[in-house]
Design goal:
The chain is an alpha+beta fold. It has a single domain, classed as Nuclear Transport Factor 2, Chain: A (Roll), CATH 3.10.450. Helix content is 20%, strand content 39%. The chain is built from three helices and four strands, in the order αααββββ. Strands 1-2-3-4 form a four-stranded antiparallel β-sheet, covered by helices on one side. It is globular, with a radius of gyration of 14 Å. The chain starts with 15 loop residues before the first helix and ends with a strand.
């Protein structure tokens, strides 16, 4: 078993793997972590399924040349097990053909039929 890409230090199978296989994320942060792991593992299917229906793109194709390396949670506002909405601010390190970069986003999450969904986010990319 290898560590989960989300940085939790738990085995993938016990962390984001259970969410990728259909369990419900208990918090907005857990969904954010599972989405990062999906980026790192090339799981477009999960990314689309965890997107809010009103903002979900028709298709999403991950760039195979981008390697997602590290996730840092900067801040959370609400998004707990009993909340209807939440915010997760994070930094995600990556490497592509141009070198190392950093994506900084403040993401909004809401519940849809009892499940957390990614609504949108304000993003800054630093190449």
């Amino acid at each position: 078993m290898s560590d989960c890409p989300c940085g939790s230090l738990l085995p993938y199978e016990e962390c984001c793997g259970v969410l990728h296989n259909g369990e419900t994320a208990p918090t907005a942060e857990a969904l954010m972590r599972s989405r990062f792991a999906a980026f790192a593992l090339g799981r477009d299917d999960y990314l689309l399924a965890s997107w809010h229906p009103s903002t979900r793109p028709a298709a999403h194709d991950l760039d195979p040349d981008v390697v997602w390396r590290r996730l840092q949670i900067v801040d959370t506002v609400a998004g707990g097990p009993d909340d209807a909405e939440g915010i997760v601010e994070f930094r995600a390190s990556y490497r592509d053909a141009d070198g190392a970069g950093l994506l900084h986003e403040r993401s909004r999450f809401v519940r849809v039929d009892g499940r957390w969904a990614y609504l949108d986010g304000a993003t800054t990319l630093t190449p």
